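PROTEIN SPECIFICATION:
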Amino acid sequence: MKHLLSTVIFLGSLAIAPLADAENAFTPSPVLGQASGARSRATGSLEKSSSEAAAIRAWKRSLVPVVVSQSLDIASSYGMRELNPLLAGPDGRFGAKATTIKIGAAAAVVGLEYLIVRKWPNTGRVFSKLNWGSAVLTGSFAAHNYRIR
């Protein structure tokens, strides 16, 4: 069990590692032939306002508890009877199939959030609150699973 938990946490940290240097991913590159302060319809403002930058930072910080809570939920559920038929393996237990589906779904949600926050930076505040809420809910599921083991 310890080996599984450390593997899940390690994989979760790999998913977050690119976000540490993702600050430049939200600043569009200048278009050739434009002045440095000019606006472009294709790229938006070349310089983000401080409120947009703060919203993006809050969203990035909110990804840590999401990954940690998902990892804890996977580790606490592994090998136990699964009630969700989409996640249950042939023997009705939470296993590798369920882990793959759960990680894939979380990655898809984070990827969609990234695309939306990149286009509309102020949505980072809303996604930050949603991420913290989902992390608390998923963390409570993990705590319940550990309690009934």
